User: What shape does this take?
Amino acid sequence: MPALPPADGFAIAYGPITDAGEAVRQEEAAMRAARACLSPRLALVQPGMPALRLNSAGWLRVPAAAIAGLDDSRAMLAFAGVALRRRAPLFAAPLRAFLDDYVGFVAARVEDARAVLSERLARAGFDPGGALPHYRDWAFSALLPLPAAHVGWREEVGGPHGFVRCDAAFWTGRELLVVFLEGGSMPTPRERRARERLALLPQVRMLHAEREPGRGWTDGALAAALDGFWEDCELPFGLIRPAALRDGHWPR
Assistant: This one.
């Protein structure tokens, strides 16, 4: 049985896994020893912890040379998009489409806010026309989607109802956004009851996304929840944030 997260905390196993409890058992001890909140298969979050972003350490483990060889922030964002798609189960075509839409949404929002973001660089003493930092680097401050997420919380981890499965989860630093894509498989009665209990937690917001003709998954209420990701970031960083500036540690 995996250890319980602390009060108000969540253990979120994600990616192409078959047993969420086993993923927690395999990852949790090492993460707690390192005071890490994020690995390629598990996120451990609780209120007061910073948001999980695309440039949060732990979810993406690649050689530094793979990042250094990318030409600019657009290439890095595309690289991140491929890495996210690989976290989707093999036959989860709607989830892969959602992740593609999300990366496109992030890129578009940064372009829409170019003037604002360039002005923020200028106020911080940087040349807005320079290569580093670049206004497009704010794309990596976007919230990190945890694809094919299994959300467990104190009352349920290891209990009779286990984890709540969802298409994606985002930790904003204030709440857990739990996303279900319309058209997915119908929940069993047990899963439905577990979802209802999860929805009652004050730190959780459940969102149902529907893809309409000519529109992406990330329109509507979901877009509003995921927008403005740069507002609480003083400066942009690339896909791999410098070690001295990493955050999101799990308290001892």
In short: The helical segments are 20-33, 64-68, 73-85, 93-112, 114-123, 189-199, 220-226. The chain is about 30% helix and 15% strand.
